Amino acid sequence: MKVNYVAEGPADGEVVVLSGSIGSNLSMWAPQVAPLTEAGYRVVRYDQRGHGRTPVPPAPCSLAELGGDVAELLDDLDVRRAHVVGLSLGGMTAMWLGINRPERLRSLVLCCTSAMLGGPETWAQRAELARSKGMTAVADASIGRWFTAGWLAANPEAAREYHHMTAATPAEGYAACCAAIGGMDLVADLPRIAAPTLVISGADDPATPPEGHGKVIADAVPGARLAIVEQAAHLGNVEQPKQFTDLIVEHLESAR
Ligand SMILES: O=C(O)CC1=CCC(=O)O1
């Protein structure tokens, strides 16, 4: 599927693809754009299937389809190899690429993500919530996983914007991506990832806590490093933008 994307930064810079979480759109990466483009990278952020301005797929989708969308985007941009930075569902998409399309990668940064998250029943229930109660109900539940209580209290306007981001996501688009997460189990394939890999976890992330998720990935991917960022819940790149961005830039530079 052709995804909606925005490309910024020097046309001759190494390409960094930013792949987002379920219930988000490409604006979730706003804190990273200026630092990455100023560091000389061509930043390509996109909306996952059924999110933002990317069309809603006709049926539940798979991680292979989400990963295939990135490969197709790289083809369309005439980019052979890119750094891929993904958060949550975006990190799962990035791992799929690392396992199945290694020739397209320069490096991986896997933020607040998991190689196996809950299983089919959990995500079928989430899809059912989206369909039966609507996306405002999904946003009401997600916002407390995305950000710590302290950040929400200190940033009420931004909190409303992120709540709106999820509430405005089409229910069928969200449900389609729930199926991709429910059908995912990448654990056994992690040792096949050869790209230089940085894993970043939020110390306060209730959705993908470092212990059962980021650490599992970093332990299994050859040569991977784990960084745990304090005072960050699930959307750690927003809650602790400087720490996340500094870690990302440092990793991209080390992979040059
Ligand atoms: O449950 C959430 O909202 C957190 C999450 C899990 C996968 C993802 O992309 O976001």
From TrEMBL:
Classification via Pfam families: Abhydrolase_1 (PF00561)
Domain of life: Bacteria
InterPro entries: AB_hydrolase, AB_hydrolase_1, AB_hydrolase_fold, PcaD/CatD
Example of a GO biological process term: beta-ketoadipate pathway
GO MF term list: 3-oxoadipate enol-lactonase activity
Signal peptide: none
NCBIfam families xrefs: protocat_pcaD
PANTHER family: AB HYDROLASE-1 DOMAIN-CONTAINING PROTEIN (PTHR43433:SF5), HYDROLASE, ALPHA/BETA FOLD FAMILY PROTEIN (PTHR43433)
Protein known as: 3-oxoadipate enol-lactonase
Organism placement in taxonomy: Bacteria, Bacillati, Actinomycetota, Actinomycetes, Pseudonocardiales
